Amino acid sequence: MAHWKYFKSMCAFDRRVLLRGVAALGMAALAAGTVVGAASAASLLDKIKNKETVRIGFSNDPPWAYAGSNNEPLGSAVVIAQQILKKMGVTKIEPVVTEWGSLIPGLQADRFDIITDSMFILPERCRNVLFTDPIATIPTAAAVPKGNPKDLHSYEDIRDKGLTMVTGSAYRAVKVAQKVGVPDDKIMQVAGYAEIVQALKAGRADIGIGDPLGLRGAIGSDGGIELADPFTSPEKPGYAAFAFRLDDQASVDAFNAELKGYIGSPEMMAAVGEYGYDKLLLPDGTKAADLCKG
Q: What pTM was estimated for this model as a whole?
């Protein structure tokens, strides 16, 4: 459980920070990177054939992906990616850590060869990258003060009671809450899971929204915060996957071929268990192509 303990301390890192200025710069980089990257980037399969180093890109996004004390790549998503890449013949891996909002622009600009973070497959993202099939099905979870004193079990409860929710900047929960009708001034956005729990403990928010692994890890042994049971959400579970450049379909196909027999195997479960990944998170067979259609 050493990595799981380390993950709890890593929650202080910024997670999925996507400020407006960064987003604007990211889109500019994406536009430029698509042209330059497409002209110069070698495919993953080419790099394997030539025994070149493969660069994996991820954010500090524990427990899915993060850099260890010696910059070694850690986390359940990164472990899965590394094992699949090894099966494909990759012998040398270089980790590239960046902000969440810079992952897709960085991939397009050829800063790395594959995004190995836990990235949800969304139609708007499918226009910019090719996704592998899912590595996990992730439901929405909510953290509340112990005993759930305000009896919060849905976004509608937050809206109807005029309370404040906290979630990560650019998390899917922001759009879901807005769609349900939670006012913008009742949606607090912070850097990541550690900050979500801190906001709850300080009384600045009444409920925190995210994924169960991230919330559980940030709560840790704190007896004052727990997960709301149940918590219902209007959106479907998120399907997490890895991403390749749009011109690298052959590499995606080869990756998926290895992934098919690996997902849920004893080898995989032994590797990801220390990060809190269990059978409840295994993908349900949904394909990336169907998710990209919306």
A: 0.75
